[in-house]
Amino acid sequence: MAELQLKSVEKMYGNGFKAVHGIDLDVKDGEFMVLVGPSGCAKSTTLRMIAGLETISGGEIRIGDRIINDLTPGKRGIAMVFQNYALYPHMKVRKNLSFGLKLKRKPKDEIEASTGEVSGILEIDELLDRLPKQLSGGQAQRVAVGRALIKSPEVFLFDEPLSNLDAKLRASMRVRITDLHKRLRDEGRPATVIYVTHDQVEAMTMGDRICVMKDGHIMQVADPVTLYEKPANAFVAGFIGMPEMNLADAELTMDGTPKLTLAGQTISAPADLSARLNAAPGPVTLGIRPQHMTIETDGAADAFSGVIHNIEFMGHEVNVHVTIGDAAFIAVVPTEKFDLKLQRGDRVGLRPTGVQMHIFDRASGENVSLAE
Amino acid sequence: MTAMPQISADTLANMEKQRRRARISSTFRYSLLIIVGLIMVYPLVWMFGASFKTNAEIFSSPSFWPKEPTVQGYIDGWKTSTPYTFAKFFMNSMMIIIPKMIGTAISCTLVAYGFARFDFPFKKIIFSTVIATLLLPNVVTRIPQYLLFRDIGWLDSFLPLWVPSALAGDAFFVFMLIQFLRAIPRDMEEAARVDGANTLQTLIYIVVPMLTPALISVCLFQFMWTMNDFLGPLIYLSSVENYPISLALKLSIDTTEAFAWNQILAMSCLALAPSLIVFFMAQKYFIEGISTGGVKG
């Protein structure tokens, strides 16, 4: 049992700054949970509190049925992989891997067997007699993962482990880590993982569930699909997705059917949206993903009229930047559906398809278009 | 094919002029540096040459090259005018230096680690006090220290020379280590804590190895300063059998009526040797930074 529970966990610094505002989070046994958010959202602080590297100002952290608030990091049953690897520079890879076991006074042959097994899994056998400075970034990171793996911890903690690697290596390490997680699960020793990142691609591709954080609050915890399709608030909506969701101030009116007014233009809300709308008329924030808009001729029905101010040709698709009044929108359209004769300065109609179109309460940011 | 742009004769002449000027300027610069360097190193060179001269020749010529080289100065100087040979004084010096160096390294590491990595009540005030003692002239504490050690009964032993250093009495070294520690990222120590190391294990297995270059510098400084220390041994040591080299050199000036300068110079040359040897042996560790490898891949 290695369920991890955070109950009203708080972090207050000596200068009175409150970094974490009583967060609750349940991570199931064997689950891969990603903490994601912009820098300064306290995701790393939360991880370090779980690790025991930061004290907890309030609340409770449990692993299984043990409260670990006051245990030293070594006694929590966790292992951590650091952003800059934090390998011991003066020890060879072999000693780096076995250091934790040696401190636990494990018998020599057991340490050797574990080192052999872990280096086999991570393909670092050939590096065992090298010093950390003789390793490339990817190799160093694998050793760092190995150092965590060898302890067979109840919970793995990853603190932005891939952000020092180049893009190509990052992609392969991403797969390697998720494969490792699956492999452990298949072998009947599932590992609970908490993975901190600021990269939404990592979050979306790796996590069983994702916890989006902002300013020390949890904004939403959900699986990647739910997070993308049903963001609980404007922050999550804007954070997840590439290019990010178009968010613009609009006016919602109920004139028989719901209507949306943006920059003086009023269109009827698409049927898909109207069905799940649960909002009172008034000022709202309109959210439309770039992929869910079509470019029409200017003046088309139920389309906002705007001016193209930039066109980015990406190959298979085109990013069209359109300004509607003060609001800047991006529409992503497949190349074959885009009229390549269109130019900067041309007037076009921008029609939301209604799919995954969201209405957020302007004051609270809550999504008010999630009714079933 | 594009044609090379034409360079006018004027530009060429100008370039040549600039090149010549740079050559003259660097010749002048290096000559000046060499001359000043020679002036500074000359006394040392002279001392080495003069140690092979006879006593009479030392005052007859300012040249450093001995006309009739002899090692008599070394032979007589080694014997000394006391019942002991110079070997005894070398031994005494080492007896003072080695425990002092070890004590300094251990105590200063502990104190620096505490200041650099932990928060405790009154840390700021205590740290300021430590740094303030850096500014205190050594001489000021001599008398109270002397009285203290006299009352404890440590006079004419090596204890007054060892103990203050073994209790991290050298604020300079504490400061130096703290500065070095501040530059080392904490990740490795945190990784060790996650691996289950306690504070002392983290210090011994992780921090000290990373601190090695700084510790070597500390030991090196302590070695040279103690080797050259004259006042400390002069105050606390009274019997000749405890004298280190610095006092022994002075001894040969005191006891002989006609100063045997060649002997003094010969022994001075020998006295320089340990510091020089230790320095050249440890030199590369000064430069080698050990912590870089683990941080950035």
Automatic annotation (TrEMBL), chain A:
GO terms for molecular function: ABC-type maltose transporter activity; ATP binding; ATP hydrolysis activity. InterPro entries: AAA+_ATPase, ABC_transporter-like_ATP-bd, ABC_transporter-like_CS, ABC_transpr_MalK-like, ABC_transpr_MalK/UgpC-like, Mo/tungstate-bd_C_term_dom, NA-bd_OB-fold, P-loop_NTPase. Gene3D superfamilies: 2.40.50.100, Nucleic acid-binding proteins, P-loop containing nucleotide triphosphate hydrolases. It comes from the Bacteria. The keyword Transport applies. Pfam families: ABC_tran, TOBE_2. SMART domains: AAA. One of its GO terms (cellular component) is ATP-binding cassette (ABC) transporter complex, substrate-binding subunit-containing. Residues 4-240 form the ABC transporter domain. Keywords: ATP-binding, Nucleotide-binding, Transport. SUPFAM superfamilies: MOP-like (SSF50331), P-loop containing nucleoside triphosphate hydrolases (SSF52540). NCBIfam families: PRK11650.1. Belongs to the ABC transporter superfamily. This is Oligogalacturonide transport system ATP-binding protein. It comes from Yoonia maritima.
UniProtKB/TrEMBL annotation, chain B:
The chain crosses the membrane at residues 27-49, 89-113, 125-149, 161-181, 202-225, 259-282. It is a multi-pass membrane protein. Belongs to the binding-protein-dependent transport system permease family. Pfam families: BPD_transp_1. It comes from Yoonia maritima. Residues 90-282 form the ABC transmembrane type-1 domain. This is Oligogalacturonide transport system permease protein. The keyword Cytoplasm does not apply. Keywords: Cell membrane, Membrane, Transmembrane, Transmembrane helix, Transport. SUPFAM superfamilies: MetI-like (SSF161098). GO terms for biological process: transmembrane transport. GO terms for cellular component: plasma membrane. It is found in: Cell membrane. Signal peptide: none annotated. Its main location: membrane.
